[in-house]
Amino acid sequence: MARRSRQVARALDAMAMPLSARVATLAWNGYRHLELYFGVSGSGRVLHTINPRLHPDQIAWIANHADDQVLCFDLSFLPLVQAVHGKCQTIRHYVALCDRDALPQDSAIPGLISYEQWVQEQSDDYRWPQFDENAASSMCYTSGTTGHPKAVMYSHRSTLLHAYGAALPDSMAISARDVILPVVPMFHVNAWGIPYAAALTGAALVFPGPLLDGKSVYQLIEQERVTFAAGVPTVWQMLLDHVKGGGQQFSTLKRTVIGGSACPPAMIQAFREQYGVEVIHAWGMTETSPLGALCALKNKSLMQPEEEQIKLRCKQGRAMYGIDFKIVGDDAGELPWDGKTFGDLYVKGPWVVRDYFPGKDTAALVDGWFPTGDVATIDADGYLQITDRSKDVIKSGGEWISSIDIENIAMAHPAVQLAACIGVSHPKWDERPVIVVVLREQMTLAREELLQFYEGKIAKWQIPDDVIFVDAIPLGATGKMLKSKVRQMPEVAAYCAHGGSGS
């Protein structure tokens, strides 16, 4: 990898790419993508990973906004590149991540070359340049669902500090003894920093490419003897369904970090109790590089009953070294860490965004703190629990209801595949929760059965008013549920239009 990364650096020199020039990727998790991570950034250019699941018009807007000069892409994304290249005004070079023989003869992409031809023409004798550690190393765009995404630049300094923090024992605990499978995409906030932390420690990396179904991921874990994996809950649900359906076990997998959205407690328990896999619950966002908190239990917690340990494991964890938290109220005053008081979560640290690219009138901080948009509690031991996004919080009769709590309870029902909780207008209580549910294949569940399932698990006034059964729940480009899209679904829109008259 190091040798070929040096060849990538030389290939960019041969293209006369200036320092800080943006080199974009549209690629799955693979070894060529990893070589670009180090060859591009190490040579003083900026690696720009683009999310291929975005709309083509949005991809073209992002490439132009970033002033990308080179685009490297997997051949599976050739139709996408063909659709957008005419709109990409700044890209001068296109590189297909393939062998010379696999290069399409009539791609309609001007000057298209194969990656292997591009790098193999270069010597691997290369001396990495010296430059300021605060220079940009990579960039990612937020996956916002309204308006244009915002661009976050990461420096060499922030990336290295983040890698150190990620590898610590109470974070991901990465070492040279690990074989790591990052299912989280390399186009999603640099795969949570795992490519850098793995290189820092000497851990082995295993890449899934585009095969993210439960069967493929399981076979890869077993074949490559993976010890540690990372991904979002939706992918792990498919993995668990496959393993359970086949009566299988994991022979080497010991732990997994789950983030991107809140991990249902039922998933944490299934991994731990049925398969002996420790779940490390995590929280972060594009603006925090992305890791901000990971859930490792303190020594005193290990002495508590299993039920109490599970409650802690369901939280997003304690701040990594280098990250500071606070929660504030409507008056911007700081709130207590008592595990009960809800507030808007603010963070700061050396790998937290200061402003958005290009840095003009795009300040992100409030008195040095970044407002995350999450609503959270923090307990006396510093354990963070995200209760909602501020835009999704449900206020009923002046009291807050956590949509995440309601979703987690629904997900614990054996018939429920996926659940999203939304607030619906109510003439007396202002808003009331309604749960939107996708059932597992060949399973049935009545509205009354699910509502009864909530009894004793949550306060009566927090139990959803109703259940709406749907075939699928819209997911965003990074696997998160899109609440705004859920509200637009015909079944949900019709329910809301009729004032919640039944599901």
From TrEMBL:
Name the record gives this protein: Long-chain-fatty-acid--CoA ligase
Domain AMP-dependent synthetase/ligase: 2-357
Family indicated by similarity: Belongs to the ATP-dependent AMP-binding enzyme family.
Gene3D superfamilies: 3.30.300.30, N-terminal domain of ligase-like
Keyword vocabulary terms for this entry: Fatty acid metabolism, Ligase, Lipid metabolism
A Pfam family this chain is assigned to: AMP-binding_C
Record InterPro entries: AMP-bd_C (IPR025110), AMP-bd_C_sf (IPR045851), AMP-binding_CS (IPR020845), AMP-dep_synth/lig_dom (IPR000873), ANL_N_sf (IPR042099)
SUPFAM superfamilies: Acetyl-CoA synthetase-like (SSF56801)
Residues annotated as domain AMP-binding enzyme C-terminal: 406-480
GO terms, molecular function: ligase activity
GO biological process entries: fatty acid metabolic process
UniProt organism field: Advenella kashmirensis (strain DSM 17095 / LMG 22695 / WT001) (Tetrathiobacter kashmirensis)
